[in-house]
Every structure is written in structure tokens, then in C-alpha cells.
Design a protein that fits this description.
Blueprint (H helix, E strand, L loop, with lengths): L6 H10 L18 E6 L4 E6 L8 E7 L15 H20 L4 E6 L1 H5 L4 H11 L4 E2 L2 H15 L5 E6 L4 E7 L2 E8 L9 H9 L11 E5 L1 H14 L10 E3 H12 L10 H4 L2 H14 L4 E4 L4 H9 L3 H5 L1 H13 L5 H9 L11 H21 L11 H10 L8 H16 L17 H21 L3 H4 L2 E5 L3 E6 L9 H13 L3 E5 L2
Parallel strand pairs: 1-4, 4-5, 6-9, 9-11, 13-14
Antiparallel strand pairs: 1-2, 2-3, 6-7, 7-8, 10-11, 12-13
Length: 517
């Protein structure tokens, strides 16, 4: 049906499955077996195996083999025999791992190198026999679709250009508030031989690539990640998380230009990328200038995220993937049911609009606050089983390192700050991740601290159960923060609870008041 799909061989292989559930549309709910994605690119073949017991397909295994399948794919359009053998050896290893893990659903896709090769069947035939199912060779449009799907799963309102630079091709998609407007694919990548003039001619022939200094490029692929690593090392950027890393236009241009020199400065570029980085940088710089030279945001997403989003997630799960992930964490970590929802209801009144903000800005700020508040409530018991002396530090570090791409750097710091103060309170003698002191504005850091203190007060007051959380509420008039307590649980408001409520009110710059106790 797609690309080099060889129907007769596919039917034979499918018959060999003896009814195994390997079809991509075999159902998205109730499957307990693991899911695998095999991404066969020009430079590498990657296998990712995802857990499938809950709504969040957590990666259980993630390995890349740098097979360089597309190396030597020149004007004759032929895959080289030695590269094919290396790639088949990687496929055999991956097949063994999938069998050991009991994988029953496999999404195997190939991109530019196999798509362009005249002798693709010399690889796909044996490879399909090894894994026991067809390999889907994506067209240029399909590849661009899955790349953009992977990005918008994690950045739903993305506006700008998604650029996926691989070994043999460059896919570019123009997004407007998460919706693809245009897409194209260029037949060059970091393994190609290409000149500045070649790039200029290719990019200039695509009118919709034109942008301005406000335009964003969301960079996907190993070359963009290498650019991000170099930026972190050379600038001392405080958070070593690549996804969501924003590189200002002038700094991006300077870095890329340094990579392109006759004697390139490759400080911070991983050793495995240094050989191909000058060509990659030449391509990235040419695209960056054509798109207006605004800003590059490094994306940790990939075509694999798009495949999972398209074929394994329900529409509700795609709406806000961060909530899905944190709900899964909550189910595994909270001591008692119903607590996160009760916490959200209790702490929602702590929202404080910015001074002189108009109604539209207040609405946007409120939505952002309530989203992060909900996530913080889901994460509020994630380190309860750890030693009390290190809960705050461990909790904050776990949030900073959440293995997801649906959270920005500022959101990571905000949530980590909230979780830290949920465990530590106002103590100053506890270990604390240094990253918490960067990136956020003073106002937003104070907001996150207040939420952390609110979580600490509420979970202490209630013993971590939802029943008594539902028997109190908060309100404020801009000056006084009032805790309304049902008389049936007035005995819970002891001196300890009063002190923590006072700390919460002071953090919010409000006067504490308790009614009903």
C-alpha cells in the first residue's frame, strides 16, 4: 500500500505470523504486550520498545545501531552490499530482543535511503524475513506527516518550521498552531555531498520557506541534538535536557558558522557526530537563514513519536500528553485514591493574576497555572517512599529528568520547584538542585513555591487522604487568604497545620485566616 510494499511477500510473511497481532490498527485499548518501533534511516536503525499496560507507552528499551545504510547511495541509486550486511546484522539482533520481550506489535518503517534505492529489495526482503513482517517504506509526505505528528503530540500549538535532518534527506513541515500547512522533502542529508549553492537553489525554489526574525525552527534528528549539546557546553546552560532547548538566532548562527569552517570548532559535539557535523551545519545554516534566522528549538521527538501518536494513542491521550504521563505516575505513587483531584480543587484559588493584565492575558495565565497545578498534584507523592532527608532533592531531580518531551524547560523548573517545596517546606538546610535557581522569572518561581507549600500543608492536614481534603476550601480577596474548615474536621487544625498554613499565606503575600476551627 505504501512505497516499496511488496504485496505477495507481505501476505506470505503475515501468514507466518499465525494470527499474531502485528497490524498497526489492531486496537488501542487493553493491550498488555509491549509495542516496538523500528526506524530504518539512512544513518542508523533504531529500535524502541514501549510498555503498553497503561495510557502512557513508556520506553522499556531504546537502542540505535549506526549502520550507515545510505552511505554510498550515489547517482546510481544502489545500496552498498557491505552496508546491507551491517544493517541486516542489526535487524537480527533487534529481532532477538523483541522475541525475548514478548513483543507482539511491531511498527517497522524505512525512510530516505530505502525509499530512493533501486535495489531496496536486497535489504527489505531479508530484513522482513528476519523480523517476520513487512517493512513499510514511507513516502516523503508520510515521513513529513509522522515527523510533525511527533512534534505536535508534545508541543500541540507549535507554530514555525519542523526540520528533520537525517543522513539522506531533510523533511520540512510548516506548522500554524499545530496544523501542517505545507511540507516537502529534500534529497540531501548529513551523509550527502552538497554545496552552499545547491542548498540555496533548493531552498529558494520553495517559496513558503521564507520567514522573518520571529520564525522558529523546531529541529529534529541527531544533528540538531548535537547542536544543542554544543550550545549547552559552550554557554554553560543550566538544564542538560535537550528537548525544548531554545537557541537564540544570533547564537545559533554563530555556532553553525563555526561548524562549517575549514577548520571547524566542534566543541561539545559528540565524537560520533563530528565527522558529519560540518555538512549537517551547512544544511542547517542554509535552512535557518532561508527561514528568517529567528530561533532554533531543539526537539527530542522523532518519527517514532508520530507513529505511536497516530497508531497507538486515543484522541483524548493526545490532547495533553503531559497529563496522561503524570496520571500514570500518580496511579503508581499516590498512597490513597482521589487525592490529586481534591488537591486541585483546594489549591486552584491560589492563582494570582499579574498586575495590570488584561482579560485575555489573565485567561491565558489562568489556563497555564491550572494545567501545571494539576500536574504538580499528580506528582505530589512521587517520592513518598524515599528517606525524608532527601525527598525534596530527589523529587525535584526526578521532575527535571522526566523522560518525556511534552514539557518545556520553564515548566520543568516550575514543577520541580513545587515538588521540592512540597517535601522541604521553607527549610534551608536541605540539598537542592542548583537548576531551580535558573530560567524562571522571580514571579513564576514564587508561584511554584507557593503551590509546593500548599501541597505540603494540605497533605499534612489530611494525612494524605482525600476525605478530609474535601472538607475544606480556600478563598482570598487579594489581601487575606481564608481557609474554610468543616466543623467535622476542626480537630485536624492543630498548631502544626496552622504554622504550615501561615507559611503558605506568607508565600502568597496574603494574611492567613482560618474559619471553622
Amino acid at each position: 500500500r505504501r512505497g516499496h510494499r511488496h504485496c505477495d511477500r507481505a501476505r506470505l510473511i503475515m501468514a507466518m505470523q499465525s494470527g499474531s497481532a502485528v497490524l498497526a490498527d489492531a486496537g488501542k485499548a487493553g493491550r498488555e504486550a509491549a509495542i516496538a518501533v523500528i526506524d530504518i534511516g539512512s544513518n542508523s536503525i533504531r529500535l524502541v520498545i514501549y510498555a503498553s499496560g497503561g495510557r502512557y507507552p513508556f520506553p522499556l528499551f531504546n537502542e540505535r545501531s549506526n549502520c550507515r545504510l545510505g552511505e554510498g547511495l550515489g547517482e546510481d541509486g544502489m545500496l552498498q552490499a557491505d552496508r546491507i550486511q551491517v544493517a541486516l546484522a542489526a535487524m537480527a539482533r533487534f529481532a532477538g530482543i523483541m522475541k525475548a520481550m514478548g513483543v507482539t506489535t511491531i511498527h517497522a518503517v524505512a525512510t530516505a535511503a530505502v525509499r530512493r534505492a533501486r535495489n531496496a529489495v536486497e535489504f527489505t526482503g531479508p530484513a522482513e524475513a528476519i523480523i517476520g513482517q513487512p517493512i513499510e517504506v514511507l513516502s516523503q509526505d508520510e515521513e513529513a506527516h509522522f515527523v510533525s505528528q511527533g512534534l505536535t503530540l508534545n508541543i500541540p500549538e507549535a507554530t514555525g518550521f519542523v526540520a528533520d535532518l537525517g543522513g539522506g534527506s531533510l523533511e520540512v513541515v510548516k506548522l500554524e498552531r499545530g496544523v501542517a500547512q505545507h511540507s516537502t522533502s529534500f534529497n540531501f542529508g548529513h551523509l550527502s555531498t552538497v554545496t552552499t549553492e545547491d542548498l540555496r537553489n533548493a531552498f529558494d525554489s520553495t517559496p513558503w520557506l521564507a520567514g522573518d526574525s520571529s520564525t522558529r525552527i523546531f529541529g529534529v534528528g541527531g544533528s540538531f541534538r548535537a547542536l544543542g549539546l554544543a550550545y549547552i557546553e559552550q554557554t554553560g546552560y543550566p538544564l542538560p535536557v535537550l528537548h525544548g532547548l531554545r537557541i537564540p538566532g544570533d547564537e545559533a548562527a554563530n555556532l553553525l558558522s563555526a561548524f562549517c569552517r575549514e577548520s571547524p570548532d566542534l566543541s561539545g559535539v559528540p565524537l560520533g557526530r563530528q565527522k558529519t557535523m560540518p555538512v549537517a551545519a551547512l544544511i542547517m545554516l542554509g535552512l535557518f537563514r532561508r527561514c528568517g534566522g529567528g530561533r532554533i528549538t531543539v526537539s527530542g521527538t522523532s518519527i517514532r513519536d508520530g507513529l505511536i501518536a497516530d497508531r497507538e494513542l486515543a484522541a483524548g491521550d493526545r490532547a495533553d500528553f503531559l497529563q496522561v504521563v503524570c496520571q500514570e505516575i500518580s496511579r503508581a505513587s499516590h498512597r490513597f485514591p482521589g487525592v490529586p483531584e481534591a488537591l486541585v480543587d483546594l489549591l486552584r484559588p491560589l492563582f494570582r493574576p499579574r498586575r495590570d493584565a488584561d482579560d485575555a492575558s489573565v485567561s491565558v495565565d489562568r489556563a497555564r497555572f491550572e494545567r501545571l497545578l494539576e500536574v504538580a498534584c499528580y506528582l505530589s507523592d512521587m517520592c513518598w517512599t524515599e528517606h525524608e532527608d532527601v525527598r525534596g532533592d530527589l523529587g525535584a531531580r526526578r521532575v527535571l529528568g522526566l523522560p518525556v518531551n511534552c514539557v518545556t524547560h520553564k515548566e520543568r523548573i516550575w514543577l520541580a520547584t513545587a515538588v521540592y517545596h512540597r517535601y522541604v517546606g521553607r527549610k534551608t538546610n536541605k540539598s537542592r538542585p542548583p537548576e531551580l535557581g535558573f530560567i524562571l522569572s522571580r514571579r513564576r518561581r514564587a508561584e511554584a513555591t507557593t503551590i509546593g507549600l500548599g501541597l505540603r500543608f494540605a497533605l499534612t492536614f489530611s494525612g494524605g487522604t482525600a476525605q478530609d481534603l474535601r472538607k475544606m476550601r480556600m478563598s482570598h480577596d487579594g489581601k487575606v487568604l481564608t481557609l474554610h474548615v468543616d466543623p467535622s474536621c476542626a480537630s485536624l487544625v492543630d498548631s502544626h497545620a496552622r504554622r504550615r498554613f501561615q507559611q503558605l499565606a506568607q508565600s502568597a503575600n496574603l494574611v492567613p485566616q482560618i474559619e471553622g476551627a
